[in-house]
TrEMBL record:
Lineage of the species this protein comes from: Bacteria, Pseudomonadati, Pseudomonadota, Gammaproteobacteria, Lysobacterales
Translocase listed as a keyword: no
Transmembrane segments: 38-59, 79-100, 112-132, 138-158, 170-194
Main localisation: membrane
Keywords of the record: Membrane, Transmembrane, Transmembrane helix
Protein name (database record): Yip1 domain-containing protein
Amino acid sequence: MNFAHLIARLRAILFSPRATWPEIASEPASIGSLYTGWVLWLAAITPLATFIGLGIFGMSVPFIGSFRIGFGTLFGQLVTTYLLTLLIVFLMALITAALAPSFGARNDRVQALKAIAYAWTPVWIVGVLRLIPLLGALTVLLTLAAAAYSVWLLWRGLQATLGAPQERAVAYTAVVVVIAIVLGVVIGWTSAMFTGIGAMTRANIEASVNMPASSGISGLAAGMQQAARQMQATGKVLQGEQAGAAGQAANLAPIKPLAPGQMSALLPASLPGLVRGNVDSTRGGIGALQVSEAKADYGSGAQQIRLGITDMGANRAMLAMIGMVQQDQESASGYHKVFQRDGRTVQEQWTAATRAGEYTLIVGDRFMVQAKGQGPDMAALKQAVDAVDLARLQTLKDTPGE
């Protein structure tokens, strides 16, 4: 194995993708060589980092404290997750190749595997952060940024490797990404089923693709068949929107997020009846995968609100896709809603027992403005978000940071 070549290719695909994709497309390869020279190594990063991180540092759970998971259980999860990741890469290559003619591209499994394997590089690299579980929210933010960068890399890669026309590449990319999400849910479910650790480390996921009530492999197969039919229908809808898709393609490109000082200036000096405390602003990441965030606490007596703005300039494609998600869940304990208002994605979450809530608004497919607190009602959280100059954020949606 030529590790010098692997490291050089890593740098090239992350920092010079426009020049690197044509090289990848033209070089001779086979499914076996792509696995032994690339996939086997990078796919091991996340499960191995998780194994070491949870084994050494353990897991911290609110109100319970920190505890460690047995190495036997962790090793079982490592092996299962690793093997399933190798499988999903292969399945995605097959699906991507099979879909190619529908979008004016070539049906070539080797080239499709190149597109999938190299496009997913940012997510695999960011997986190294799982060595330190205490990073928590930072790992989540950078993983989201990496996923968005991967979507953009896939958009370019499908054009370079399979010859997808640019005017149809957006729809092609969207369908492949949605299928990958469905398969990812299946992988998480399967990993949890085999190792048992999933119940402790991830929340239950309610997917929009309804799985049949039957259990076992037959039920899973039927569910995937239904998912495939939905993806086919999605593809037809997306192809019907080609005129708009071509114009949106540029929005997939990552943008350098605003500097900490620029972010801090976007927070209001006060909220109605509430005094602002210290402002905390940061910008960080790996290479082009940068995220900026500014947040401040506003309070008076028992009423406390934390208001934050996150600039996910490298994550715009993912935020645009979030706009496709709709959710409306309500119970005696509270509610959770995701919906569209005035062309923007809104999330509301409320827990009645603790009177704790969150209100999040996505602006310009780039900025996430979130207010959360314990004590105020949802109206106060909405008022806090509205106190941010949202019109100014909208004008900054295509402006790179300093």
